[in-house]
Write a structure and sequence with these properties.
The protein has 310 residues and is α+β, with helices and mostly antiparallel strands. 44% of the residues lie in helices and 24% in strands. The longest helix has 23 residues, at 202-224.
């Protein structure tokens, strides 16, 4: 039996903007999706999905995951029938890179079962093919974070050549809270809406892109200097820019507001938006707990995690 795993991730800066070639910063979460692959006397594949999930996620994403698995199998030229079992402690939800974690885990498990001896770059290519199922035209940030882990800066090469991937280091991992809106959103749809908005109002949207471009440079420096207060302020600004491109929602805004009022250094939506998750920067166990409880008191579920771990 072949085994593999992929990291869940959270985007600290730059979801959506990353699609347009601007740099984004993501961190792997401690949680992973695991995959086991066994050769079987069947046609194609069979899937047993034991991942924990936000209610309704798997049902809503069924077709997208079928494409994801087919894409990975095709790219890795698997000619035999396989039985795939997914598991791990990453809760399948919008905004944690659940599909990318699954694609990375599956690619690693196939690599293992068929002794292909692919390196991480090649595994990342397979995971990117998988991501095209749920995303249509993914930037590549999710699968890169899922395969490599850690804290990284990602910049898509719009010309089709190699993307820029830079490992970043935090002096010390920092506590975060992820608030779950409980709603599953379609990345393909939301990315498409932003594209339309950019086509209809190019001047307005390009001004937002420009503002983000300056912001992410400041964010890189603040993370390097471990200036968490500054990182938080920039996360707040990033959320405002995401509101301007219409990818937030009332639930996400409510959780962001609640987190800030409870003392979070900064808060923003993370990932696709409209549904899915928000992230709050909450250094120290006490602040993390305070913010988590404040969001829970509003009726949302939360995940307590850390960014910047290895
Ligand atoms: O919702 P998630 O975790 O799959 O993140 C999507 C990130 C986007 O920037 C919106 C899309 C992309 O391909 O980068």
């Amino acid at each position: 039996m072949g085994k593999g795993s992929g990291y869940g991730k959270t985007i600290l800066f730059g979801e959506h903007f990353v699609v347009y070639g601007l740099p984004a910063i993501a961190s792997a979460l401690g949680s992973t999706t695991t995959a086991e692959v066994k050769r079987a006397d069947i046609n194609g594949y069979e899937l047993i999905d034991n991942r924990p999930e936000t209610a309704g996620y798997k049902e809503q994403k069924k077709e997208e995951y079928e494409k994801l698995i087919e894409n990975v199998i095709k790219f890795m030229e698997v000619k035999e029938g396989i039985r795939i079992t997914l598991g791990g402690n990453l809760v399948a939800a919008s905004g944690v890179g659940a599909s990318a974690a699954c694609a990375a885990a599956l690619a690693r498990a196939i690599n293992n079962e068929f002794r292909l001896d692919w390196n991480d770059d090649k595994i990342n290519e397979a995971a990117f093919e998988g991501e095209k199922g749920p995303h249509g035209t993914p930037s590549g940030i999710d699968n890169t974070a899922a395969v490599f882990g850690g804290l990284l800066l990602f910049k898509k090469n719009l010309g089709g050549n190699q993307n820029t991937i830079k490992k970043m280091k935090l002096r010390k991992p920092v506590e975060i809270v992820l608030g779950n809106s409980g709603k599953t959103s379609s990345t393909k749809e939301v990315v498409g809406d932003v594209r339309r908005l950019e086509e209809e109002q190019p001047k307005k949207i390009n001004a937002v892109f420009e503002e983000y471009g300056a912001l992410v440079e400041e964010a890189k420096k603040a993370l390097k200097d471990y200036d968490l207060k500054k990182v938080g302020t920039l996360m707040n600004k990033n959320h405002e820019l995401l509101q301007k491109i219409t990818v937030s929602s009332s639930e996400l805004d409510e959780m962001v507001e609640t987190a800030r009022n409870a003392g979070a250094l900064g808060a923003k939506l993370t990932g696709t938006g409209r549904g899915g998750l928000m992230i709050a920067l909450t250094p120290g166990k006490n602040l993390q707990e305070k913010v988590a409880e404040a969001i829970e008191a509003q009726g949302y579920t939360v995940f307590r995690s850390k960014i910047g771990g290895s």
